[in-house]
Amino acid sequence: MHDKTDLTEFVTFTVAGQLFGLPIARVQDVFKPLRITRVPLAGAEVAGVLNLRGRIVTVIDMRHRLDVRHQEGDAPMAIGIEAKGESFGLLVDAVGEVLKLSVTEREPNPINLDRKLAALSAGIYRLDGELLVVLDIDRVLDLRAAEAAA
Amino acid sequence: MDELLREFLTETNESLDRVDSELVRFEQEPNNSSILGNIFRLVHTIKGTCGFLGLPRLGALAHAAETLIGRFRDGMPVTTDSVTLVLSTIDRIKTILNEIEAHQHEPAGNDGDLIGQLNRLTHFEEMRPQPAPGAEANARPQPAAVAESRVKPAAVAPEKQPADKSSAERSDEERADRLAKHSIRVHVDTLDQLMTTVSELVLTRNQLLEIVRRHEDSDFNVPLQRLSSVTAELQEGVMKTRMQPIGNAWQKLPRIVRDVAAELGKQIELEMHGGDTEIDRQVLDLVKDPFTHLVRNCADHGIESAAERRAAGKTPKGTIRLAACHQGGHVIIEIGDDGRGLDVARIRARAIEQGFASEAEIAAKSEAEICDLIFTPGFSTAARVTSISGRGVGMDVVRANMEQIGGTVDLKSVAGVGTTFTIKIPLTLAIVSALIVETAGERFAIPQLSVLELVRTGSSAEHRIERIKDTAVLRLRDKLLPLINLKEILRLGESDGDHGFIVVAQVGSHVFGIVVDGVFHTEEIVIKPMSSKLRHIAAFSGTTILGDGAVIMIIDPNGVAQALGRATSLAPIDSAKVEDGEKADNEQLTPLLVFRAGSQQPKAVLLSLVSRLEEIDCSRIENSDGCHLVQYREQLMPLVRINTQTGIKQDGAQPILVFSDQDRSMGLVVDEIIDIVEQQLDIEVASERPGVLGYAVVKGSATEIIDIGHYLPQAFADWFLQREKPAARVARKVLLVDDSAFFRDLLAPLIKAAGYQVVAFASAAQALAAIKSGTRADIVVTDIEMPDMDGFDLARALRENPGTAAIPVIALSAMVSAETIERGRGAGFHDFVAKFDRTGLIAAIKEQSADLHQAA
User: Which residue among A131, B163, B604, B711 is buried most deeply as judged by most CB within 10 Å?
Assistant: First the structure.
């Protein structure tokens, strides 16, 4: 059916009930965030910093980043990402399975997608019974753009 | 890159750096054979290697230079022109080398211009008749002869010189050779990598130590001790490999100074001391440019022209002095000149002109603060842009660079004597000692570098935080320190009471206190760079991992100081952080304590008179015979109301102002303390009401200025009497003459409080009449501007009468000008005091009465 090179593997996770995916190549590791040190005066998206095996990881709270704050309680998982030589962790509610999806099946954002979500989305996959939003990690980490938009 | 080529570049660059500083000496001592030998060797090596590596352009240039320098070696006289030519040839060689480094091949172009000049000079000198060898030796200036006499007796024939020279050269080479055998070249990256690894090792060791601390009697104790000391040794060793003498950053300076001096026609000598002081390579790289800039500034702005110097009674030759030394974990570097010093008036004018500060702000600044303005971004005093300085890039960059590495730059300038910059930089960057503090349950690290001392505070402690609405201050050994509550500036909550510690920190010349909840210990921390997402937060300079594995933020004292509005007083104020706190330690202004009592109209007293602010539990206030008393510091302290409208609260806390003198205190009951305001005290409307000196505009509203002198006797009828006792021995009587009742009321209590008897008169005529009718007057203090008979007339009248001619007369004047002083001297005034200079007045009275005492 699909050409093998056509397939991308996505690490999937949920934030406030929505399913998201990140290309596996961009994901360093998945870990339980322990002892997050909050950083005073930092934006709400920055949950803090933590020590992951000697590396200092800046933790981004995805609920704040996506502006879905209704869910209470600590986000129990983090996805480790490296960008421009720095380590980041995305706080998410749950990490799901790794999915192999074809590039050709990716669809553009529906025009009525939430503005904030649309700004971070690199496209949509229609799976059985739910939608998967592919995150553009570089835009997720561009917090200044987030501030400007807010 | 080709291994051979790389080796060639590294070696050549090193020798170029060395030769650069020697070239300048070469000009001063053109016949110093060892300098000439070094330069010759360098050019010779370049020439030789170029042929080998196939670099024809460089080779040709080096060949021409070698020929000329060879002539010098053979005894051809050295002229300034030829030195300049050699210098520009070296510059060209450097440019080409840089190109080769970047592109790995020689750049296009040719050096016909330089080669032509070099050849011309070589041949021009050749065409001149060569002096006989003997005459040549005699013609040599003294230094060379002296240098040689060290090697051999002066009587040795000059013909032998060449042989001796080459033997000296040989021994030089041998020494270098021997050194080379004991050292190897290691790439800097390797060292950096090693340093990072050691840093990680230090962290892991700290973690282990933390674990063992929790399990006493562990079997790990002994091996861990060993590991700990080995780690420390390793750390020290690796640090040592990265150490370089600071002189490496100075090598280019003699040349720069020479060029600036030549361009501006000045005579400048550069003195360098402590060049062998070692400093971390990374730090060295970062301070190179700031050094260059500062030295260039000294040469350009600091040192005057020879004529100017002579006119000022100095030696025509100016001196720039560089000195480095170790001090604790820092290197202190002083860069100073003996030039004209900073032009404070000019800086002031430029600051206003360029819109860095308003005239009022400038007027309120001390000289040191004005000088500090030169570190403001964009600030430049140069009237015109020269090729040397005045481009507005500079001092701000110097300070920013230094602060970036945890260093500081301070400046001291004395007009006509010179300017000195003192730079304090940490020995190494990666590992620093930090104080771990806690606030709002979170830990933070404060670099030990900027911590002066720790002060414990609390109601029972010796030092207490005094709080005036939003402004917290600490009195510490006669200094009023502004305080910043870490909890508040990090928005971690409201400060809760005054318990905790104050970390007294210094940034530049500003000393302030950081209030924290607790202080743990000091720890060697490895600074990890701040996440790019957090770098905008000025309060932090980085992150670190503690021994227990937790990540904490490193506080940047510079950033914290900004919250005070001190360090950035000229920068645009961009946040709500800068509010009232900034005014706490400005000394030129009069600090006023503003409060409300009895009415809505604000009242104020001089803060300097207030010894404490208290809130007293109303249940502790006792009423005795209509007097309110409270037990305070194991004494009964009377409470005084400002007027009958001021009620003493029935319950809750009653704010009072405590005035103390020797062992007695009085509490002034107020409704509410509003603020501390610093401003120039201009009493605009005098008051006839007792207890009120007058009215002034404070923070935009008319405010009653309270005369505390009026209230003190209400608390203790004998307050002043008691004060007078020590003075009674002399029993000086001061006659105060002023047509303004306001000033009489203002000054009379003041003079009285200083221990004198005072009799006040509203006119000179009244005073004269009183003296004639027998009123004793030891000292007369008089206003100058008065209707009918003014101060001059009064002084003259007193002089004319032999009975009163000896009475010292002190004049009070709203405007003290040279002219009035001159006129006053003629009229017989002994001293002049500005009307509002009350301390000055007391000092003058004291001085005059002391004279009297001696005379008597």
Answer: B604
Asked if A58 contacts B534 with a C-beta cutoff of 8 angstroms, the reply is yes
Nearest to A49 among B490, B492, B543 (CB): B543
Fill in the amino acid letter for B205: R
Please judge whether B534 and A84 are an interchain contact, meaning their C-beta atoms are less than 8 angstroms apart: no
- Among B531, B540, B551, whose Cβ lies nearest the Cβ of A86? B531
The confidence band for B385, taking pLDDT boundaries of 50, 70 and 90, is very low
Q: Does A141 touch chain B (CB under 8 A)?
A: yes
Select the residue from A36, A41, A52, A81 to test the B interface by mutation, using most B Cβ atoms within 10 A: A41
Q: Quickly state the pLDDT bin for A89 (edges 50, 70, 90).
A: very high
Fold of B431-583: SH3 type barrels. (2.30.30)
Cβ–Cβ gap B543/A56 under 8 Å: yes
**Domain extents in chain B:** 3-130, 188-241, 246-426, 431-583, 590-715, 720-855
* Topology of domain B590-715, CATH: OB fold (Dihydrolipoamide Acetyltransferase, E2P) (2.40.50)
Q: What is the DSSP code (8-state) at residue B172?
A: H
CA gap B12, B42 in Å, rounded: 8
Instruction: Check the CA dihedral B840-B843-B847-B853 and report its sign.
Output: positive
Query: In chain A, which among 84-113 make CB contacts under 8 A with chain B?
Result: 84, 86
CATH number at residue A31: 2.40.50.180
Contact residues on chain B for A50, CB-CB shorter than 8 A = 551
- Name every residue whose Cβ is closer than 8 Å to that of residue B231 and which is 6 or more positions away in sequence: B198, B201, B202, B205
* CATH code for residues B3-130: 1.20.120.160
Find the closest chain B residue to A89 by CA distance.
B531
- Domain annotation covers residue A147: no
Subunit contact A49:B551, Cβ cutoff 8 A: yes
The whole-angstrom distance between A118's CA and the closest CA on chain B is 22
Q: Does domain B720-855 have CATH number 3.40.190.170?
A: no
Q: Answer yes or no: is pLDDT of B501 > 90.
A: no
For B550, the closest of A35, A39, A58 (CB atoms) is: A35
Does the pLDDT at position B723 exceed 50? Answer: no
Distance between B396 CA and the closest CA of chain A, angstroms: 26
pLDDT tens sequence across B318-365: 999 999 987 766 788 899 998 888 888 888 888 888 777 778 777 777
Is it the case that residue B379 has pLDDT exceeding 80?
A: no
CA separation for the pair B576, B562 (Å, rounded):
12
Unique residue bearing structure tokens 């001390």: B366
Interface test with B, best of A35, A36, A45, A49 (most B CBs within 10 A): A49
Number of domains in chain A: 1
Q: Is A38 on the interface with B (CB under 8 A)?
A: yes
- pTM (two decimals): 0.43
Tokens of B587: 């000394």
B541 vs B2, which has greater pLDDT? B541
ipTM: 0.87
- Nearest-Cα residue of chain B relative to residue A144: B533
For the structural domain made of B188-241, what CATH number should be given? 1.10.287
Give me the numbers of helices (H) and strands (E) for chain B, helices first please: 26, 35
Query: Structural domain of residue A67, as residue ranges?
Result: 4-142
* More confidently predicted of B357 and B682: B357
Residue A50 in contact with partner chain B when CB distance is under 8 A: yes
pLDDT of residue B425: 81
Which 8-state DSSP code applies to residue B301? Answer: I
pLDDT of residue B436: 92
- B246-426 in CATH: which number? 3.30.565.10
Q: Residue B810 corresponds to which tokens in the numbers above?
A: 């002190």
> What is the maximal distance between C-alpha atoms in chain B?
115
Question: Which chain A residues have a beta carbon less than 8 Å from that of B442?
Answer: 37-38, 40
CA distance B518 to B503: 10
pLDDT of residue B728: 39
Chain position carrying tokens 């002198």: B709
